[in-house]
Amino acid sequence: MAVEHLLFGTIRFLSRRHPELLDELESSLTHLWDQADDASRSDEAVRDIAQRFLKSLRAEGAQTDQDADH
Predict the structure, then answer these.
(1) Distance CA 29, CA 52 (A)
(2) What is the distance in angstroms between the CA of the first residue and the CA of the last residue of the chain?
(3) Which domain of life is it from (predicted)?
(4) What is the mean pLDDT of residues 48-52?
(5) Residue 40 half-sphere exposure, CB side, CA atoms within 13 Å?
(6) Cα 15–20–22 angle (5° rounding)?
């Protein structure tokens, strides 16, 4: 949890200064894969988690933009 929190905060900080970062990360998701060697392997599930992570960052950025407009 601590690593996820720090990573999320770092990406949020950087994406505020470089909005194209989220697009770049999203375009790289096709390269993600699950390291499991058995039937539990699900590359798509790993990509889905990353996609939700980026979606959350985008939503937070949009909310920050709306708050700044008021």
Answers:
(1) 11
(2) 33
(3) Bacteria
(4) 95
(5) 3
(6) 60
- Determine the Cα–Cα distance for residues 28 and 62; give it in Å rounded to an integer: 22
- For the residues 52-59, what does the mean pLDDT come to? 93
Q: Where are the domains of the chain?
A: 2-69
Dihedral sign (CA 11, 14, 17, 19)? negative
The answer to whether 46 and 32 are in contact (CB under 8 A) is yes
- 50: its two tokens: 């990353």
How far, in whole angstroms, is CA 59 from its chain's centroid?
11
Cα 68 to Cα 36: distance, rounded to the nearest angstrom? 43
At 1, the amino acid letter reads M
* pLDDT above 70 coverage of the chain, percent: 96
